[in-house]
Amino acid sequence: MHRRRRTALAVLAATLVAAPLLSACGSQSHPGAAAVVGGERIEVSVVQARAADVRSAQGSSPEAAQLVNKSGQLNRAKLHGLIFGRVLDRAAADAGVTVTRKEIQEMRKANRAQQGGEAQFEAMMLQQRWVAPDQIDADMRQEVQLPKLAAALGADLGTPAGQQVVGEALTKASKALDIDVNPRFGTWDDQKMQLGNYSAPWITQVTEFGPQDSPTGA
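Above: the chain's sequence. Below: its structure in token form.
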């Protein structure tokens, strides 16, 4: 299940890259905000706190130095995740999709079993996705949400046509939210679901259905 979702997101990202580029313009009109999404602020302090949680978890790992070295864009990664989460929430709401606590726990259970236990699962999330243990449920929520969105749209994420349908829904939601990013973090691209040139490192590039540009994900 975990592997299938990563592949679907990667192919979806490649499809998004194929579309014309439209970049949101960041501004200095919201001091203290890392971004404003749908009129709601994402504070710099929130981004920094989430990054600090990851750094703390990394510091407790036997591979601390390696983990820190590989996550140099951690603040941008956390802001990217917060923005994408709100875009996905908007697209899901527009499609009438909801996610229950039970579904999140079932998804977490399935991923935990695939990794061979809770400790192994948490280690994988920290290493591959830069997600601290207390941030995992939010990530699992998106794992539930994306395929449910696809189903509500009558789209098959395993096909280019289905990926395009979901990509168009996400782009529509992103534009509707009028995302304004603090220039220190870059700018948000409605088409690519990407913050500047930051690309989520855990998304595997799939080239069969798109160009060679670097993709992004949740």
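Residues 58 and 67 are 6 Å apart (CA to CA).
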